[in-house]
Amino acid sequence: MTPTRREVLAQLAALAALPRSAWARSDADPLEGTIADYQAGRRRGAWTAAEVTAQALERCRTDGARWRAIDALADTALAEAREADARLRAGRLRGPLDGVPVFAKAIYDVRGLPTTGSSAEWARLFPDPVRRDALEVARLRAAGAIVLGKTAADDFAYHGVGTSSHTGQVLNPHDPTGTRTPGGSSAGSAVAVADGMAFAALGTDDGGSNRIPAGFTGVVGMKPTFGLVPRTGVIPTWPYLDTHGPLARHVADAALLLAVIAGADASDPLARTGAWDARPLLALRDDTLAGVRLGLVDAHVPRAQMTPDALAVWGRAVADLRAAGATVESFAPPVTLQNYRDAFAAAAERRGDVAPDSRSPAPTANALYRYFQGRTDDPRAAIRRGYDAYRSFYDVLPATYEACEPLLEQPMERDPAGQSFARSRAEVVARLADAMRAAGVVAMIYPTMPFEAFRLADGWPDVRTPLGYGNWLGLPEVSVPAGFGADGLPALNLSVVGLPGEDARVLALAHAYERQSRRFRPPPRPKQAAG
């Protein structure tokens, strides 16, 4: 029988008592270790949640300001930490996230803070603190996590370089020149965990917004199965693509976050409705790669366009997988980054269906209405006030609020173009599943992106990536650091990709790779000015 959410939280609480992991770090800086290390230190009295939270907040005010990674800090964090310490003393921890400092992204509602969307105009239009938490934030709080505040992002999570009109350009902490992008849109979340301001952070991903900054800052970024994490209480993007998930320094920490935030909720009509069992995420094994067959998708490895550093790191990543016991073979799926859009259109044509549209206007309008329904008594007035600012990015919407108004209450799950897109997704994924089974492949691998963090002045390289492929197909994908280049910057992340619903499997495989390769490296700690 599938466990209830209460039972899952009880299982997570039992996990909190497990021994310290082999990733142990020095007691001098608990924020540099894993969540398991941190909790072990709390149990033996090496530090308290209040002490570490105060340290995290101070780092946010120094490093966070330096890298422009922070949107807002919560004034409740220290009180939450003291409550977590009291639960520990009473032997009533809620799970392994109890007392763990985490962040949400700027587009999430966090009780007591304004939701700026990282947009200067939106922050001006909606300056008041909100009175609710986004569903994911509420689930983190229920698990005992300490919400430090919110991280900076691209305006409305729209672009992929970390440029916020509200707080400025987020900087890459690995780049001493200050010229390289940290990626985006979840830029601040990636930088915060890379730099040890928090153990993990929430991000969103419509076309790479978790995986891009994970690759460019050298951390773990996950895009779960589409619909696994309900998106209620977050400024919406593209409802048929948008996927929420964790960023962390280690796969096990990302898995702990996902275990808490995932699971059906009727408030998101496109969320998966099946029961969610978090138990497989609680027992990641180092030997999971032994005896498995992985499919290397050559169509997603543009070797002719990759730098020598990227090619060398990619070759070493494949060697690390084999050293961990995996068989890695070329795999040619029936749909790749080159043809997935055509495959969706062809499937709709065969059905005699309307053209599929992942960015149909009506679902976005309805998502915006649902968002404001949850935070104000007059959602239409709020949308009217913010319409021009929002539409300046999401310009598939009608040019004026008046033209958009008839779309607001049209249920996103009934939109013909969106429904056609979902039906095409199911058909295309079924073909992919058949091909993987025929080849005996349990997961696909390829570079998250085949290039390193670029200079902002140069703009995006003219190289196709498989980022949108994962979003259109709704596949779970874990992006794991694979190594550094000669310039000291992250050179590449390895993506481990499975079929929808196989989130636990791809996390387990990514964890085993991480344990074999051990490629995470924190950015250099900035030198403090002499007093």
Q: How helical, in percent, are the residues?
A: 25-40%
Number of domains: 1
- The low-confidence runs, each spanning 5 or more residues with pLDDT under 50, are 14-26
Number of helices: 17
The CATH level-2 architecture is identified as Alpha-Beta Complex
SSE sequence, one letter per element:
HHHEHEHHEEEHEHEEHEHEHHHHHEHEEH
CATH topology: Amidase signature (AS) enzymes
Please state the structural category.
alpha/beta
Radius of gyration equals 22 Å
Number of strands: 13
Q: How is the main sheet built?
A: 11 strands, mixed
Strands across the major sheet, in which order?
Answer: 1-3-2-6-8-7-12-13-11-9-10
Mean pLDDT: 94
- CATH C-level label: Alpha Beta
The proportion of residues in beta strands is: 5-15%
Short description:
With 531 residues, this protein is an alpha/beta fold.
Describe the structure.
This protein has 531 residues and is α/β, with parallel strands linked by helices. It has one domain: Amidase signature (AS) enzymes (Alpha-Beta Complex), CATH 3.90.1300. Helix content is 37%, strand content 12%. It has 17 helices and 13 strands. The strands form 2 sheets. An 11-stranded mixed sheet has the order 1-3-2-6-8-7-12-13-11-9-10, sandwiched between helices. A two-stranded antiparallel ribbon has the order 4-5. Strand 12 (477-484) and strand 13 (490-497) form a beta hairpin. Helix 3 (49-66) packs antiparallel against helix 4 and helix 12 packs across helix 13 (379-391). The chain is globular and about 65 Å long. The N and C termini lie far apart (62 Å). Mean pLDDT is 94; it is low at 14-26.
